[in-house]
Inverse folding.
């Protein structure tokens, strides 16, 4: 297999970068009145405008050649057909099967999986419906009013993000809480307002071995047991989502209250599975189906659209253009929708855990840059916080901006102002403000020449800062499903071009193992000397203050 940097398209892109890097987007827009038409795509209710990027048609042609030479289409085919493309864990990658609405059978590593997916989804919907309609009763025959999802990483961020994003679709007399942090503040703060008689816990852990989740689950169980007293009563307040049924049963969850997960779905791609139980409880089965449908539509688009019109492919290639040729280090995700406030955090895991890797699929070190640092926040809030750096800083930070054209409860005065901001920002980032423009403006204000000269450098905006804009009608379940799937496939395409296994996460292991060893040392509480001097001193300082008494 040819190394990425030896591919003919890569070499041509290097030269093309040198030829075009000094062109300002202002010039590109001035030269081509059709630029927006050439560099925008529509998918159902989602408009994707990528015209405000430092690209020409030649850039796109070369990037598309790169995708072809990196065999994006062949790898895409292997993923959808259930081939074990997660080579370090010998697993297929079939989160797309969880939302497959085609009725076609699906396979993971040769085994048919669609029937059990549908059985499990039906069980999830049934439980959710019982809770939503107050038929699921706690030990004292009171209906459930609060559901607490205990999970972390992929068993937390997706469900949390979707529940928040679809707040207008949620059932309002039922409260969904999320606890992920092993820091006791998280569970303490959550439990302080809850009543064990009316609370149901979902222990969401694919492995059922994750320390954070198990410690939180044990605290929840103790909290319940104070009031409920018997294991039998407990069964009415505990359910689990896991592929490790044995451990969940040993923990005290009744087998009929355990929902299955499979090896072929990675944690960060699992919100479509029973891990989405809290979502289904919140928004109901019909809306969850719409979420799946939106994602499935994108799967079909990704599978069938020509590369030049394939939105995830274009998103991925533009990212590669900045990451590998402009050497930009990061990407900002900036939703102009308050309900999407966890979207950047969700994508941070999806992207950085998938493509934050330094060796390729064969285990060889890569000699090119891979996954970017992804960060983000609500766009409006960020304008008053870190947009300064985006406009005038020394770093090139390509940004994705996302906004709904209307809202569920739209108030025109709010929404028009919101939209004016997103449009203004993408325009300002692209055009900037030249020296002449600043000068003219200050002269108009009647400032003396010496003051104008002094202020001038601070008021110039270089512009030429790239953005993608996604506009959609409203953030409904179907649209959200589509948006998430667009990003999932973007990450996949980038992983293929960078020749990475985007579906393992060995990088999170080392810290976990060390934490387990240090926990043993902390429990023994004798001074330690087996670490580096800093770590020894920190542990010993902590132990010397005897901060916690052992409850036993
Ligand atoms: C995601 C990762 C990771 C995982 C958590 C929780 O892709 O694998 O974030 O989801 O570590 O794991 P469990 O669900 O097994 O508790």
């Amino acid at each position: 297999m040819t190394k990425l940097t030896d591919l003919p398209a890569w070499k041509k892109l290097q030269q093309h970068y040198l030829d075009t890097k000094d062109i300002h987007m202002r010039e590109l827009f001035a030269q081509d009145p059709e630029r927006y038409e050439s560099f925008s795509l529509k998918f159902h209710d989602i408009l994707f405008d990528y015209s405000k990027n430092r690209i020409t048609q030649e850039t796109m042609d070369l990037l598309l050649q790169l995708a072809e030479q990196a065999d994006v289409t062949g790898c895409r085919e292997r993923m959808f057909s259930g081939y074990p493309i997660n080579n370090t864990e010998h697993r297929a990658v079939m989160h797309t099967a969880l939302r497959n609405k085609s009725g076609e059978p699906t396979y993971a590593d040769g085994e048919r999986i669609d029937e059990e997916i549908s059985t499990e989804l039906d069980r999830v919907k049934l439980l959710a419906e019982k809770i939503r309609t107050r038929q699921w009763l706690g030990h004292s025959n009171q209906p459930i009013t609060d559901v607490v999802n205990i999970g972390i990483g992929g068993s937390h961020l997706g469900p949390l993000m979707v529940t928040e994003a679809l707040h207008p679709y949620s059932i309002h007399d039922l409260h969904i809480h999320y606890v992920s942090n092993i820091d006791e503040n998280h569970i303490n703060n959550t439990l302080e307002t809850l009543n064990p008689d009316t609370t149901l816990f979902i222990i969401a852990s694919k492995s059922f071995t994750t320390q954070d989740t198990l410690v939180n689950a044990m605290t929840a169980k103790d909290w319940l047991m104070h009031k409920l007293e018997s294991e039998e009563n407990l069964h009415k307040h505990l359910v689990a989502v896991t592929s490790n049924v044995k451990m969940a049963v040993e923990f005290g969850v009744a087998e009929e209250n355990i929902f299955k997960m499979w090896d072929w779905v990675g944690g960060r791609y699992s919100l479509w599975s029973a891990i989405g139980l809290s979502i289904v409880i919140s928004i109901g089965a019909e809306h969850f189906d719409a979420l799946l449908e939106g994602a499935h539509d994108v799967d079909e688009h990704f599978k069938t659209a020509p590369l030049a019109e394939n939105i995830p492919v274009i998103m991925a290639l533009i990212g590669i253009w900045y990451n590998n040729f402009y050497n930009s280090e990061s990407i900002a995700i900036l939703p102009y929708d308050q309900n999407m406030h966890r979207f950047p955090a969700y994508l941070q895991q999806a992207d950085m855990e998938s493509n934050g890797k330094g060796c390729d699929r064969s285990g060889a070190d890569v000699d090119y840059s891979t996954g970017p640092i992804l960060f983000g926040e609500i766009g409006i809030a960020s304008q008053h916080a870190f947009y300064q750096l985006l406009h005038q800083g020394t770093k090139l930070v390509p940004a994705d901006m996302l906004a709904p054209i209307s809202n569920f409860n739209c108030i025109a005065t709010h929404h028009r102002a919101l939209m004016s901001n997103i449009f203004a920002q993408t325009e300002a980032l692209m055009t900037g403000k030249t020296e002449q423009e600043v000068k003219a403006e200050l002269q108009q204000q009647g400032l003396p020449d010496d003051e104008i000269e002094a202020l001038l450098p601070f008021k110039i905006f270089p512009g030429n800062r790239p953005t993608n804009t996604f506009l959609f009608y409203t953030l409904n379940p179907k649209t959200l499903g589509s948006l998430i799937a667009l990003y999932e496939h973007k990450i996949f395409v980038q992983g293929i071009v960078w020749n990475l296994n985007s579906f393992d996460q060995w990088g999170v292991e080392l810290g976990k193992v060390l934490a387990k060893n240090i926990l043993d040392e902390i429990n023994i509480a004798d001074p330690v000397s087996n670490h580096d001097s800093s770590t020894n001193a920190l542990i010993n300082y902590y132990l010397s203050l005897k901060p916690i008494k052992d409850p036993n």
About this structure: The two ends are 59 Å apart (CA to CA). Residues 477-497 form the longest helix (21 residues). DSSP finds 23 helices and 13 strands in the chain. Residues 152-155, 205-207, 210, 213, 266-268, 353, 505 surround glucose-6-phosphate (CB under 6 Å).
